[in-house]
Predict the structure.
Amino acid sequence: QVQLVESGGGLVQAGGSLRLSCAASGTFFSLGTMGWYRQAPGSQRELVATIASGGTPNYADSLKGRFSISRDSAKKTISLQMNSLKPEATAVYYCNANYRDMLTRSLEVWGQGTLVTVSS
């Protein structure tokens, strides 16, 4: 019942910045924790950051201070501000959302991903 659409991926030079956005749409009762995950070529998908419905963020330890997650509840979107990008940040970034449908069942949905390429 919820669809997630990511945007903002692209090519950026090392040291640069990029901002990703994820918009939720569809029919649902409420959105819970949302977040960003990434998967580099040949690697497992890993947590980047999550943000609770009330705005409390959590980050992968290695990314604290350089990545920042935010949420706009009215627009039903989350964003990921990525600064001081390193080549190892190259990955497909996926948006994730936990939500309750109209029957208040707890569900989870993933976006299709957006590619971030950091060149050196």
About this structure: The mean pLDDT is 97. DSSP finds no helices and eleven strands in the chain. Residues 4 and 111 are 5 Å apart (CA to CA). The radius of gyration is 14 Å.
